[in-house]
Amino acid sequence: MKSTHAQEGQDMTKSFPLDQLTFREAMSRIATAVHVVTTDGPGGRTGATVSAVCSVSDDPASILVCVNKTSRTHGAIVQNRVFCVNTLDESHQDISDAFAGRGDLAMDKRFDSAHWTSLATGCPGLDEARLSIDCEVQSITEVGTHSVIIGTVADIRMNEPGNSLMYVRRGYHSLAK
Question: Which segments constitute the Flavin reductase like domain (predicted)?
């Protein structure tokens, strides 16, 4: 059965040219949790706000994160061979903005905005994160502007459930527990 709109001749979908701006707009419509990926070691202590994170396998426990190849954090992860994904809660918009480069803070000032604990790999874990997943790099695959970095989990820290910080349509939202 056709929808009422289709019966009235109103097409609810539009076709757009496949270009970079259209793709970015389409991706902005996918709600995602907000994370800060951190690393520490010979390549330096850095971090960046990311949204592309997901589980890969539970045996061995592994996750992936996508990081822009031009970022300082990317270079440090490649050199350090470790990273930690810190999932933010609704009170962490300022941390997300700082690690996204808003406010033009030096990297040490970004870390000064919160309390961090060195986890198993030496990566900074955000004490108040909903979840911190500390990983050793297993593989790196370059895809366009980003690298897909798969890590084997070395440590997991979880806090009591709270409201997760989400990002969709270029704005922050909260997802209740």
Answer: 27-174
